[in-house]
Amino acid sequence: MSRFFIRIAFAMITALMAQSAAASSKQTEAASGTAITPESQACIACHAIYTPGIVKDWQSSRHAHFTPAMSLKLPDLERRMSAPTVPERYAKFAVGCYECHSQNPDAHKDNFKHNGYRINVLVTPNDCKTCHEKEVAQYAHTKKANAIKILLENPVYHALVKSTVGSKTVENGKITVMNATNSTLNDTCLGCHGTKIEVNGMKKITTRLGDMSVPNLTNWPNNGVGRENPDGSFGSCASCHPRHSFSIEVARKPYTCAQCHLEPDVPAYNVYKESKHGNLYESLYHEFNFKAVPWKVGTDFKTPTCAGCHNSLLTTPDGAVIAERTHDFGSRLWVRIFGLPYSHPQPKSGDTTIIRNRDGLPLPTTFTGEPASEYLIDKREQEKRQGIMKGVCTSCHTTAMVESHFEKLDSTNRETDAMVLAATKLMSEAWDKKLEDKSNPFDETIEKLWIKQWLFYANSVRYASAMTGAPDYAAFKNGWWELSDTLTKMRDAIDFKAFLKAGESATAK
Amino acid sequence: MSRFFIRIAFAMITALMAQSAAASSKQTEAASGTAITPESQACIACHAIYTPGIVKDWQSSRHAHFTPAMSLKLPDLERRMSAPTVPERYAKFAVGCYECHSQNPDAHKDNFKHNGYRINVLVTPNDCKTCHEKEVAQYAHTKKANAIKILLENPVYHALVKSTVGSKTVENGKITVMNATNSTLNDTCLGCHGTKIEVNGMKKITTRLGDMSVPNLTNWPNNGVGRENPDGSFGSCASCHPRHSFSIEVARKPYTCAQCHLEPDVPAYNVYKESKHGNLYESLYHEFNFKAVPWKVGTDFKTPTCAGCHNSLLTTPDGAVIAERTHDFGSRLWVRIFGLPYSHPQPKSGDTTIIRNRDGLPLPTTFTGEPASEYLIDKREQEKRQGIMKGVCTSCHTTAMVESHFEKLDSTNRETDAMVLAATKLMSEAWDKKLEDKSNPFDETIEKLWIKQWLFYANSVRYASAMTGAPDYAAFKNGWWELSDTLTKMRDAIDFKAFLKAGESATAK
Amino acid sequence: MSRFFIRIAFAMITALMAQSAAASSKQTEAASGTAITPESQACIACHAIYTPGIVKDWQSSRHAHFTPAMSLKLPDLERRMSAPTVPERYAKFAVGCYECHSQNPDAHKDNFKHNGYRINVLVTPNDCKTCHEKEVAQYAHTKKANAIKILLENPVYHALVKSTVGSKTVENGKITVMNATNSTLNDTCLGCHGTKIEVNGMKKITTRLGDMSVPNLTNWPNNGVGRENPDGSFGSCASCHPRHSFSIEVARKPYTCAQCHLEPDVPAYNVYKESKHGNLYESLYHEFNFKAVPWKVGTDFKTPTCAGCHNSLLTTPDGAVIAERTHDFGSRLWVRIFGLPYSHPQPKSGDTTIIRNRDGLPLPTTFTGEPASEYLIDKREQEKRQGIMKGVCTSCHTTAMVESHFEKLDSTNRETDAMVLAATKLMSEAWDKKLEDKSNPFDETIEKLWIKQWLFYANSVRYASAMTGAPDYAAFKNGWWELSDTLTKMRDAIDFKAFLKAGESATAK
Question: Are residues B472 and C187, on separate chains, in Cβ contact within 8 Å?
Fold first, then answer.
């Protein structure tokens, strides 16, 4: 322990020296010879001792070895920075701790004074925008950036959230549902969708360097894709480019998307692993180059990951663009196979709370399957987006094969929608017979079977079909076996509840 | 876009030049110095631009760097080609696009004229046979090669298929089952078993090179192991050696088998991952040599993958053969732990539709567990096959350990069969009491519980035991917990249906 | 085959030569130049031919290249041997076959004469202790070392074991539970917990070298963490350091822990994979150094594996100790999130059979959630252990972030405990109304739902929260969706059973 105190003293001195160095604007260098600002040097002096993991991680990053000025000189296709210029003070330095954590201090309610520097706890898309302007602009319009609002401000989805993750009590045999706590929301829905992080004054913490006063953040840590930040921005670039290496390799590997796109509701990663694409990825990814920009089909990789199909900048081996980079994650998608409760064209706006279907509900389809077309992209936009995706597919496959694949997907969407309709008819029977109460459609026995039909099983079959095949998944695991069995179970449950009800009314007589 | 047209023009010219080159039989070379036929050069000239992914994939393959003539000079154990000779015209060239896609044109209903060449869309086992004669011959007798027939021409299994993946409608509260569509069959059962690919004339497609006329294939793309091809052959070598690198590495890695051998019905990959073998594979495979032929135990790999135990040519580090290569996937298997509904000796023929049990059903055991022995391998053949597998096991483990392991498996087969019998007795009670209708044994509540008992849970426990251990899987995940719980659920369902029936008949009086 | 006999003869001669070499104490060398004892040379002479896999595996191990004497010269932090000295006869030789398999022969009931040498079949912790004294001592007090006793000698848990994995028969429609067989116990619970291995005399086996007489071991092979060995010791170091490379790399990779810590009861690996830690591990582990001792945060690895958080010796890049190595696997844990049936402070003793709760049951909490505090660690010990873990966390994360994380975990424990209490109230209703029989609380319909509530779903949510996030797992997969649905199902089952019972008593009148 005493060894630590000696180290602390040393760190303090180093930090003070770095501060004075900062005053004189003397430049020192990163391992690669890239200059680090004196402010970031000061950060590193202490944090190399106290949080060495993130310091080493940053030191291995591109940010540590590449200045914005160096990036601006690269050919268009090779550049990762989309801003045409950066403020002079950043241009010739590594992108270090202070450069990111000191942006836009006035907007940041989490800005505080830390060992002589004013810094923000969180770095947000609005901060990253200084260099990554285009990506932030694209992202801002996505469903991802609207992910909290979509979930909590749509009364239908909010009812599903509460019914699912709200705590329950049992008194006299009766189950009562309470509102979900922030803690559990962060563990579950908002773990992916993002929490609202607010600053509740300051709090004292005891560290190995002694007591410190730091902003008291609510609902944190969290890296959800729609996180509401203390500067008013939405999202977290670290959802996919985790700190502090902000690696393009990590974002391109399927494990990143797989943190959220998982069974049973969105089994994208599960079905990918069962597909030929997934097999080839797992078998051969050690030979791929996940850091190359642009990403060359056949040379840098032989089978797509999530990023390859959905958002990376792809070129042929000789540099012809196959698909532009996009951080608008719906821009290569025409149909939304995540049924609510049926598959439907992608919504026009990332803010889906504005949608109203013919029944007045904020859902993209009615319970009978009619799409709220006014709020959904039209045929032409669908064709445009499918065209971009087909461009990706045909970089390895023939046009005829790709078209057959998408025709199969159309058929699968129709068939799974029909299975949802079949379940909805049974659900209606239960509601009509007053066996369950439609006012909350998400909290009773038959209702939960119905939810599983569209949220788990129909979705699973569509994902399996779309992502080029996961036959066992679509057959037995969470697919047709369950789609069929759920109808049988709903029928049984209706019969049971009707029998019980009849018995009760007979007894009542 | 205009850039593309310039590229198209260039490609056309290159292709024409290649054609004229073909006429003069001038040889050019692959990256490795291996000559490529002029016909294949013509393919590559265009496809390097339009489908660069597969061209690069092929260029990284052994086919691109090794001529049949070179292969024929290798020592027996190192050779991957089993044909003793090949036609003169192939001998001194890389195995390129045209060499494979132009074989046996008269047999191929999918043969068509494409930019001046007659080619087949599909390459089938009958084409691969030119060089890989022995493998194709072995494969032809397997259950895999018979996989469509087994499923669709056995009325019992076909009824299960229809009940599971046939679409359902609900009218007046009644569920009606329809025949499964080809599209859904391809998404599910036939995704693994293989579809029947037929040619429905030609169709026009619009590509970046303009409109083209190509064969209109049904039920395609598909890579199922028993695929029926337009030349009348069965299977697809690309099921496990995916195009266009046809890599032995991919086939030897477990992800390939894992595309189909998955929970809940055949959880081979799931239990492998939980086993010590799987742990060692995942921890150390980066040190293994997956390309070496023969595959040397201890030197090239330290723990088996699926291929290691089931079909690769294995030798000791100094080259003594431990097990011969086989593409007859049952040849190291004595007992079939995939219960139908009970475990049983492996069938004699890969075409299991010929089996009749004592009750006249096309099943390898009766509902009470009696094997249809006439159609199953005898004790002596079982011992022979087990002997081959033991040879593999004892290359790392002592004889005593291996024997104890197989004794445990015997016990597990007996016990899980007893659990299936227990469920079948309950099933019989339900059928006898007319609570459910035996004429289709796969579509009602209690029947579906019974199916899960043998198809999901008993199978899972046997796979876990056979593949050296997946305790959590066999205990809780899909094993004994479920085997036991299913009996309880069947009992409850019988009581409920009997009560309901009694109530109805009381009401009827 | 005849080739084998020539090889056998050669091996025999080599073995005899090695024996005579042994007599003259002549030293020969391993590949690295490390001397191998003549006895081990004799082993290798034959086994390189007959079980080449394990010989090659050992030859790649540290044991083959590093003598105890060499190890003793290493700086403390780099040494893997904890014994301060070793017997002279081992000091200057590689740690070979004979060195390990000949230890403590008098204690080993599995000691036998094999080709002229007396060896033990099993190598046990008591043998490994010669060099790894401290690790064995730490391990001896863990729940792992007590794992068989905990399961089979606690009547409550034993009843759960029997109900779950005991075979069932159905006679006249009635389900009868039998005791679980040793074979099935080894397949399931004891696959992880460990079997009792006893010696039942000798048995003859037929090997390629001819007939041999070897100890007849029961319940073997098995590598469970609490295995009872024929020398009276408990555990198997090979559970995590599998033979015969005994690799620290394997033990540090998550696949090792994942052999047992899996869904649905202990889904540590499942939730790790969904977490940011797991994502980074899977994306970047090819860059990590899994063999370095000590294990340097940020330099050797960028994200923890199970071992990193729970037991490895961790230092900063410049060698300051962050956490000491421990093989007492509870020593960084304060709360036991594996609920029995509620979360509770870690037990004081690894032998949990001594615990009695206020109701007299051998459980750490009562059915209403009161902890058996006398047997559980107190607040101060909890803080101490949490302090060690926080030391690990803060090597990458800020103190404020770490504290917020643990506060969320506290909240999650409270909420999931409340969901278990809700289920227990319904369970009590069912027991009170005599719908099910409490004497065995683990074998009926409602009881099984109740078990799933605490053993599967509450545990899953806690693991997801503790291990930094697996939102989909905690929401839908095996978490809150199921926690809520199970209450609904319990309510339905109570109503159904009550109705049935009322109907029966009405009929009886």
Answer: no
Query: Which of A286, A337, A478, A484 would best serve as a mutation to test chain B binding (most B beta carbons within 10 A)?
Result: A484
Encoded tokens for B99: 């060499």
Where are chain B's structural domains? Answer: 2-107, 132-239
The closest alpha carbon to C430, from C486, C495, C366, C370, belongs to C495
C205 — phi, psi (to 5°)? -125, 155
Please name the chains neighbouring C, where neighbouring means 3+ C-beta pairs under 8 angstroms.
Answer: A, B
Rounded Cα distance between C147 and C192, Å, is 9
Cα separation, C308 vs B1, whole angstroms: 52
| CA distance readout (Å), C53 to A303, C123, C225 | 34, 18, 24
Distance, in Å, from the CA atom of B487 to the CA atom of C174, rounded to the nearest integer, reads 10
Greatest Cα pair distance in chain C: 94
Estimate the share of chain B in helix, then strand, then coil, as percent rounded to the nearest 5.
50, 10, 40
Contact A183 C283 (CB under 8 A): no
Nearest to A219 by CA among A242, A260, A187: A187
Percentage of chain A with pLDDT > 90?
90
Give the count of alpha carbons within 13 A of C121, CB side only.
24
Q: What confidence score (pLDDT) does residue B190 get?
A: 98
Q: Is the peptide bond before A277 cis (omega within 30 degrees of 0)?
A: no
Measured from the Cβ of residue A272, the count of other Cβ atoms closer than 10 Å reads 27
**A68 preceded by a cis bond (ω within 30 of 0):** no
Q: What does the mean pLDDT of chain B come to?
A: 93
pLDDT digits (tens, 9 = 90+) for A34-43: 999 999 999 9
Q: Test C484 with A286 for CB contact under 8 angstroms.
A: no
Residue C176, CB-side half-sphere exposure with 13 Å CA sphere:
6
Rounded distance, CA B158 to CA A274, Å? 24
Q: What is the pLDDT of residues B359-400, one digit of tens each?
A: 999 999 999 999 999 999 999 999 999 999 999 999 999 999
Instruction: List Cβ neighbours of A360 (8 Å cut-off, separation of 6 or more).
Output: none
CA dist., res. B85 & res. B69, Å (int): 9
B436/B447 Cα distance (integer angstroms):
8
Å from C23 to nearest chain A CA? Answer: 49
Cβ separation of A487 and B175 shorter than 8 Å?
yes
Nearest to A184 among C299, C412, C495 (CB): C412
Cα B126 to Cα A38, B80, B311, distances in angstroms: 70, 17, 21
Give the containing element (helix H, strand E) for C202.
strand C199-207
Average pLDDT over chain C, rounded to an integer: 93
Token pair 């659900």 is found at: A427
DSSP string, B282-319: HHHGGGS-SS-SSEEBTTTBSS--HHHHHT--EE-TT-
Q: What is the rounded end-to-end Cα distance, in angstroms, of chain A? A: 79
Name the strand (E) or helix (H) holding C118: strand C117-120
**Among B361, B365, B327, which Cα is nearest to B346's?**
B365
Q: How confident is the model at residue C500 (pLDDT cuts 50, 70, 90)?
A: confident
Contact indicator for C67, C88 with CB cutoff of 8 Å: no
pLDDT of amino acid B7: 52
Chain B: closest CA distance from residue A150 (Å): 31
